[in-house]
TrEMBL record:
Keywords: Membrane, Transmembrane, Transmembrane helix, Transport. Its main location: membrane. This is Adenosine 3'-phospho 5'-phosphosulfate transporter 1. It is a multi-pass membrane protein. One of its GO terms (molecular function) is 3'-phosphoadenosine 5'-phosphosulfate transmembrane transporter activity. The keyword NADP does not apply. It comes from the Eukaryota. Pfam families: UAA (PF08449). The chain crosses the membrane at residues 7-29, 49-70, 117-136, 243-262, 268-287, 307-327, 339-358, 365-390, 396-414. It is found in: Membrane.
Length: 427
């Protein structure tokens, strides 16, 4: 059998695997929705997560089978560029031999006024987009919507919200990429599937956690991502860390514990629900840490552009979430509610704009300035959420917030001082 014919036969096998996996997924959803013992318990999020993973496998499993088959037969070594089939497979699974040409942009010296205006634009844009995103995220996941007949309903489908957000980000990134007319990044597309999978899982856990913990708790937990990142680097890459990094990590942990025990929310009355929220936040931090680490590895190896990364990851994320939502009924009643639709649209737009501004801020002013802006945003988000939604925080909880934010700023200051000393020593 020729390699070309074998690829077509394997393509049919992959289609069959996709259909079979999708059918199994549909059956599992029916069992879950008809079983009150699974859908009504406090740990139902765990079964939802397992269902999501089965839904994602309808896309990932056929891709994996095709990748392993092409690798086994050395397809790209045996066959040269011979048509659209080869080009499609090479863009998905081939390893390019050439990198993007380095186009160093020479930036003219800007006046302090112009540079200050750029910084103000980034600061106001990031603060505005993510404050709006945070408020609407909490509203959609925790508040009730009054229907025309007077009844009330809650939105519970976190997967739908992830899909809408990723679709808006894909459109925004694709439009921006088209405007720049940049060449395609020499990265096999399957490389983006790893961080896309952890990205959608972390986003789903982030939304689902709001059913169990307060929004201030969720926001503050993001500061603790430094801990799993350090653990992953220590265990997998044998990274070494400075004393100040360990100290600030401990301070962040202590501050987070103080805040969680100093929070008084009705949705944390149940111990099981509190543990469920903690598990979801832990899964969020672990997946988000992997996402950033994998993206950093792709940037380092292929010199992929930020917009290429944003566009490709969101394209995969749309495919995964669409596959996981294909056999679930959309929230039809809420989709006819104008307030809910407006909330979803503004939430998605603010998220997409925020992602574009993240890359622009890092490229223009560096990661340190960006981290300081986002740290301030976390503080304002917590205060705004407490003011709007009435979260009660004790004195110990407020001290915990201050301790976490202070530890983050201390970490940035110590890192900057150490870099300055190293540069001075090299001169």
């Amino acid at each position: 059998m020729s390699s070309g014919l074998g690829v077509w036969c394997m393509g049919l096998v992959c289609v069959g695997v996709m259909w079979l996996t999708s059918h199994v997924y549909h059956l599992l959803i029916d069992v879950y929705e008809q079983s009150a013992a699974l859908s009504d318990i406090e740990y139902s999020w765990f079964f939802k997560l397992l269902l999501n993973l089965v839904g994602y496998s309808t896309v990932l499993l056929p891709m994996f089978i095709m990748y392993k088959y092409l690798e086994k037969i050395n397809y790209f070594d045996k066959i040269s560029n011979s048509g659209w089939t080869w080009r499609v497979l090479f863009s998905c699974f081939g390893e390019p031999g050439e990198r993007l040409p380095e186009t160093a942009k020479v930036r003219k010296d800007e006046s302090p006024t112009r540079e200050g205006a750029q910084l103000a634009f980034c600061f106001i844009g990031l603060m505005s987009s993510y404050l709006v995103w945070g408020l609407l995220q909490e509203k959609i996941m925790t508040q009730v919507y009054v229907m025309p007949d007077g009844s009330t309903t809650r939105f519970t489908d976190s997967q739908f919200l992830v899909f809408v957000n990723r679709l808006a980000a894909l459109v925004a990134a694709g439009a921006r990429l088209a405007c720049t007319r940049a060449a395609l990044a020499p990265v096999p597309l399957y490389k983006f599937s790893y961080c896309s999978l952890t990205n959608v899982i972390s986003a789903w856990c982030q939304y689902e956690a709001l059913k169990y913990v307060s929004f201030p708790t969720q926001v503050l937990s993001k500061s603790c991502k430094v801990i799993p990142v350090m653990l992953m680097g220590k265990l997998l890459s044998r990274n070494k860390y400075e004393v100040y990094e360990y100290v600030t990590a401990v301070l962040i942990s202590i501050g987070m514990i103080m805040f969680m025990f100093g929070s008084h929310d009705e949705n944390m009355a149940s111990g099981a629900m509190s543990w469920g929220g903690a598990a979801l936040l832990g899964a969020y931090m672990a997946c988000d840490s992997f996402t950033s680490s994998w993206q950093g590895a792709v940037f380092a190896r292929y010199e992929c552009g930020a917009l290429h990364m944003l566009c490709a990851v969101n394209a995969f994320s749309c495919a995964l979430t669409a596959a996981a939502h294909a056999h679930r009924a959309p929230p039809r009643a809420l989709l006819q509610h104008p307030v809910f639709v407006a909330d979803c649209v503004v939430l998605s737009l603010s998220s997409a704009v925020g992602q574009l501004l993240i890359y622009h801020t890092i490229a223009r002013f560096g990661a340190v300035v960006f981290t300081i802006i986002m740290t301030l945003r976390q503080a304002v988000s917590i205060l705004l959420s407490c003011a709007v939604y009435g979260h009660r925080v004790s004195g110990a909880g407020a001290l915990g917030v201050a301790l976490v934010l202070g530890a983050v700023l201390l970490r940035l200051y110590a890192r900057a001082r150490m870099r300055t000393r190293r540069r001075a020593a090299q001169l």
